[in-house]
């Protein structure tokens, strides 16, 4: 698979898994609500993991690349570089 196809496949499978977890439109509303809360809990846990990883000093010392929150990623003098 190309990178584009792999990305599309990941999106399709994630959508399928989410649909299966939430049930169809004919599903019991209580079951669907509980499943939605479960998916929400999974997403919050993923955010927590990302925050912990970004704030971990060992990650920063190991050469982690600062993102938009960590500061500018361009040259120090503010130039755009080769255009």
Give a quick set of tags describing it.
single chain; 83 residues; mainly alpha; 3 helices; 63% helix
Write the layout of secondary structure elements.
Layout: H1 3-22, H2 29-55, H3 57-61
Q: In words, what does this structure look like?
A:
This protein has helices at about 5-20, 30-55, 55-60. By secondary structure, it is mostly helical. The radius of gyration is 20 Å and the shape is flat.
Q: Nutshell version of this structure?
A:
This protein has one domain (3-63). With 83 residues, it is mainly α. It has three helices and no strands.
Order of helices and strands: HHH
Total domain count: 1
The residue fraction in helices comes out at 55-70%
Rounded mean pLDDT score: 76
Structure classification: mainly alpha
- As a percent range, the share of strand residues is under 5%
Runs in which pLDDT lies below 50 for 5 or more consecutive residues are 70-77
Largest sheet: none
Distance between the termini: 32 Å
Outline type: flat
Alpha plus pi helix count: 3
The tally of strands reads: 0
Gyration radius, to the nearest Å? 20 Å
Region (Disordered): 57-83
Biased composition (Low complexity): 74-83
Biased composition (Gly residues): 64-73
